[in-house]
Each structure stands twice: as structure tokens, then as C-alpha cells.
């Protein structure tokens, strides 16, 4: 693995790692926990992403040189976060129909039935790799290989809140009405982001997410009422 660090203004330091894969993500999660646990005045927050870690700090209490030295030492010793998430959040999903308008096209392009797409999507626990794009939007992976599709060639200008989507080896949930280019296969009533909640996001990096198909979604995918 290759590590690099660069400043982002006076009070932020970005640590990046390659390659971009699930092991790197587990290292970022573990490193974020270690930085958060440090008894080091000046560190404000450690925000993990797929293959990077953003550390915000107070330059009046902690110099960038000191922080770089601390992070370098942690990187040498860090062990990946456990492969199995400690917390799993269940998400109820209505698949197909108006809630998942792309499900028929997804199934056709993959050579599967709609019921098979649903069965594959609900067959495993996904890891929250990162929260990004919009507050509360979880990047969940890895997606089963049989469901791998690139993003839509033409993004939508507005995707309904709660839409469950897949693209580029990942699945995600739109927390609000937003533009987006992922394939919409279902929808949930789960509130992914609430600024008055602590934490405001329903899931955090490192959590697990398990999708459960509501009975109505299954009947719709099988051609029933």
C-alpha cells in the first residue's frame, strides 16, 4: 500500500491510501477510530472516506508537523477494522413498480429476472464504506458481482428521497430528493439523515446494512398485484 498526506488549508490534513479497495477502507475506518481516541489537544474530528481520512484540527493547539508525525506512527501500526460490521441496520425496501422504475431494465441488462435481482440485492450484509455526495448518502458495498452495472448514461435531475439504487459495484440510498445517475430498483421509508438526530445519519462508516424486501415489492417483481 502507498500512503500520502497533504494539507488542506491551515486546519485540515488529508491522508490518502492506494489501492482503493475494501481492505483500504477497513484501514481508514480503524485509523479514524484511533485518531478519535487520541488524547491529543487540537484534534477536532477524523472523517473517513473510501480510501482517505480527513483530520480537522486547531492549528493554535496542534501544529501540522506534530499531527503528521502522529499519523505516520499510527499508519505503521494500524490493523484493519473487522471484516464483519459490529452493528447491522435493517432497511425495509419496496422493490420495483413506481418505487424502483429501473428494475425491469436492470434485470434485462443483467440477464436475470426481477425476482433474482431482488434476491441478490437482499442476499448479504453491506458495509457502509463512506458517507458522501450528500448528507446521509451511504456508499454500500461490495455489490454482488452479478449486479454490477455502470451508472446511467443520462442522470436524472431529481431522484425521490429514499430511493435504493445500484451502480459501479455499489448500492446506496438517496437521503433526499437529489439529482443522480444510479439505477433505481426500490425505495425505503427509512430517514437516512435528520439534522436533529445524534448522530444525524442513520448509519455511519463501518456499519452494516441489510436490505429486506417488503411483501408488496416481491409480488410486484413477480408480476402480481
UniProtKB/TrEMBL annotation:
Question: Per the UniProt record, which EC number(s) apply here?
Answer: 3.5.2.9
User: Per its UniProt record, what Gene3D superfamilies does this chain match?
Assistant: 3.30.1360.40, Cyclophilin-like (2.40.100.10)
Q: Which InterPro entries match?
A: CT_C_D (IPR003833), Cyclophilin-like_dom_sf (IPR029000), PxpB (IPR010016)
Q: Which UniProt keywords apply?
A: ATP-binding, Hydrolase, Nucleotide-binding
GO molecular function terms listed in the Swiss-Prot or TrEMBL record: 5-oxoprolinase (ATP-hydrolyzing) activity
EC main group: hydrolase
Q: Which PANTHER family does this one have?
A: 5-OXOPROLINASE SUBUNIT B
The protein, known as: 5-oxoprolinase subunit PxpB
Q: What organism is recorded for this protein?
A: Candidatus Chloroploca mongolica
Gene symbol?
Answer: pxpB
Amino acid at each position: 500500500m502507498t500512503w500520502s498526506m497533504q494539507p488542506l488549508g491551515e486546519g485540515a490534513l488529508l491522508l490518502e491510501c492506494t489501492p482503493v479497495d475494501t481492505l483500504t477502507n477497513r484501514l481508514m475506518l480503524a485509523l479514524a477510530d484511533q485518531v478519535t481516541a487520541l488524547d491529543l489537544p487540537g484534534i477536532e474530528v477524523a472523517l473517513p472516506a473510501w480510501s482517505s481520512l480527513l483530520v480537522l484540527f486547531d492549528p493554535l493547539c496542534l501544529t501540522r508537523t506534530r499531527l503528521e508525525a502522529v499519523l505516520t506512527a499510527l499508519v505503521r501500526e494500524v490493523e484493519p477494522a473487522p471484516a464483519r460490521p459490529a452493528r447491522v441496520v435493517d432497511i425495509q425496501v419496496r422493490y420495483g413498480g413506481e418505487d424502483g422504475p429501473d428494475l425491469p431494465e436492470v434485470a434485462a441488462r443483467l440477464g436475470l429476472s426481477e425476482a433474482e435481482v431482488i434476491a441478490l440485492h437482499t442476499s448479504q450484509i453491506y458495509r457502509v464504506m463512506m458517507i458522501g455526495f450528500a448528507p446521509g448518502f451511504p456508499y454500500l458495498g461490495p455489490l454482488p458481482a452479478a449486479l454490477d452495472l455502470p451508472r446511467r448514461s443520462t442522470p436524472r435531475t431529481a431522484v425521490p428521497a429514499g430511493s435504493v439504487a445500484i451502480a459501479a459495484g455499489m448500492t446506496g440510498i438517496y437521503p433526499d430528493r437529489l439529482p443522480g445517475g444510479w439505477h433505481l430498483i426500490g425505495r425505503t421509508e427509512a430517514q437516512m439523515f435528520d439534522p436533529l438526530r445524534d448522530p444525524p445519519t442513520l448509519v455511519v462508516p463501518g456499519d452494516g446494512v441489510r436490505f429486506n424486501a417488503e411483501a408488496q415489492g416481491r409480488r410486484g417483481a413477480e408480476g402480481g398485484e
